[in-house]
Design goal:
Number of helices: 4
Radius of gyration: 14 Å
Strand content: under 5%
Order of helices and strands: HHHH
Shape: elongated
Length: 115
């Protein structure tokens, strides 16, 4: 069975979910370094939770590598941007970043396995 569309959807949904949660927890009054650290931590909590839920169905490699990159980058960037933008803009950006990371990892994996 081909799960390539599911990989992109998992990346986009996890990025949006992480960004939405971070934008709700991080206050605009926080220091940018504290917001970035808390956002990264929240991203890691989501990564481990989603890894435990999705790895049995899609495989550990297909889930762990994209979620690791998505969790840290989206968590940290949405933590820094939580005070500057409204919640809608942050979670849409998180979804786009998650989709981009999943797509880049898919094509790099395809190129490496072709060699």
């Amino acid at each position: 069975m081909n799960f390539k569309i599911i990989d992109a959807l998992v990346g986009a949904c996890s990025g949006a979910m992480i960004a939405f949660t971070v934008s709700r927890i991080v206050s605009p009054d926080w220091n940018i370094f504290l917001a970035m650290a808390v956002g990264g931590g929240i991203g890691l909590v989501f990564k481990f939770t989603l890894l435990l839920l999705l790895a049995p169905f899609f495989g550990a490699f297909e889930v762990m590598i994209p979620l690791s990159v998505i969790a840290m980058s989206v968590g940290m960037l949405s933590g820094m941007a939580a005070g500057n933008f409204n919640g809608g803009c942050v979670w849409i950006t998180g979804g786009i970043m998650g989709l981009a990371v999943s797509t880049v990892i898919y094509f790099s994996n395809k190129k490496l396995t072709r060699l």
